[in-house]
Backbone:
């Protein structure tokens, strides 16, 4: 465990002590400087005798109306615990605090190893043959129906999102919350067991995604995007579900940026187009829209086309939703046909136009990549 993590654990424990102890407790570095204390005014104070105490072989000492005890981490004295008083109660308190801090530090090390193991599985850095053995050591069920949900967030909300998700899914041996970086958090959800670990009716992937999204929106009042992989049945396959969730986020942002939840199984044509080369896409686009005819369509016409497709080429329903006369709709569709030579009232032409529009979106995405769209590049590197 690094020093920053040790300090974070010690500071949290000191904060918890503020409400249960009636005397001052401080964590002091070997040079005598207070780094955390139940009385915040003590932070930064220097105890000159601590350096002498660290140089001695004593484990506990009494000086200037305080009791001091060395806190050994990995067999080495790294900090000193200082408590007001030299009575028997002070000795009892400091011994209990020492055990408490060591237990918390040990738990933190275990959790760090636990999370590192799961992240290694996600990133395919763990040998498949080792996964069942290590899963048993960490008391993780190897065979279980799970799904990876990749939550894309604002980096300033990272810790808040982690806390909310851990509150939503508190069973840490069953449902795993894994921050990948400051902007992406994986929820690896067991779809078979309830929060008490009992087998229940299989949860719907859609239901879980909606629960995560609605909870985060309600708590933080901001928008989120969630990429959803497919269900897998063993721990070694969670990397597959995670890859799918990552791809769902990237492709979803290209073709359906208005969606909050992006499922790998529903990527449709987008997944196919994403695997085509830009050169091939440009050739196709030039064939369908010669002379850049697509860009001659104004925003009103493009809105009409989108609504026409949403209503499955139903002219009457499209006219009603756009609040225009049917003749106006016919005029706009005729205009599209004149510019592009595609009659969107015919199924084949409509499919060709839709496909070409998606290819255009993909090429625009490629251009953004070339100019450094860091968010999508970061996603695809993992």
Residues:
């Amino acid at each position: 465990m690094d020093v920053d993590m040790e300090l974070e654990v010690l500071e949290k424990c000191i904060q918890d002590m503020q409400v249960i102890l009636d005397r001052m407790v401080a964590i002091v570095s070997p040079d005598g400087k207070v780094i955390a204390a139940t009385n915040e005014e003590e932070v930064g104070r220097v105890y000159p005798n601590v350096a002498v105490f660290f140089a001695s072989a004593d484990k506990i000492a009494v000086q200037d109306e305080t009791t001091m005890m060395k806190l050994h981490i990995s067999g080495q004295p790294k900090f000193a615990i200082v408590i007001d008083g030299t009575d028997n109660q002070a000795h009892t308190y400091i011994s209990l605090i020492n055990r408490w801090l060591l237990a918390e530090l040990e738990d933190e090390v275990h959790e760090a190893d636990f999370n590192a193991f799961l992240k290694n599985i996600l990133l395919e850095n763990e040998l498949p043959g080792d996964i069942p053995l290590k899963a048993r050591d960490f008391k993780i069920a190897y065979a279980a129906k799970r799904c990876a949900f990749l939550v894309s967030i604002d980096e300033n909300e990272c810790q808040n999102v982690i806390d909310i998700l851990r509150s939503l899914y508190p069973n840490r041996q069953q449902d795993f919350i894994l921050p990948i970086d400051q902007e992406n958090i994986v929820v690896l959800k067991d779809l078979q067991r309830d929060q008490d670990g009992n087998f229940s009716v299989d949860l719907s992937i859609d239901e879980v995604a909606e629960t995560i999204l609605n909870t985060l929106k309600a708590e933080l009042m901001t928008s989120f995007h969630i990429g959803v992989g497919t269900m897998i049945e063993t721990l070694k396959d969670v990397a597959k579900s995670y890859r799918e969730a990552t791809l769902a986020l990237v492709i979803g942002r290209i073709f359906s940026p208005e969606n909050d939840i992006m499922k790998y199984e529903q990527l449709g044509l987008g997944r196919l187009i994403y695997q085509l080369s830009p050169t091939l896409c440009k050739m196709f686009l030039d064939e369908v829209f010669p002379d850049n005819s697509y860009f001659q369509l104004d925003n009103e016409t493009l809105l009409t086309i989108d609504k026409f497709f949403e209503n499955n080429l139903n002219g009457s329903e499209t006219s009603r939703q756009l609040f225009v006369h049917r003749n106006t709709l016919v005029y706009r569709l005729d205009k599209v046909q004149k510019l592009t030579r595609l009659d969107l009232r015919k199924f084949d032409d409509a499919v060709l136009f839709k496909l070409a529009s998606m290819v255009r979106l993909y090429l625009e995405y490629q251009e953004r990549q070339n100019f450094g769209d860091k968010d999508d590049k970061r996603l695809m590197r993992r």
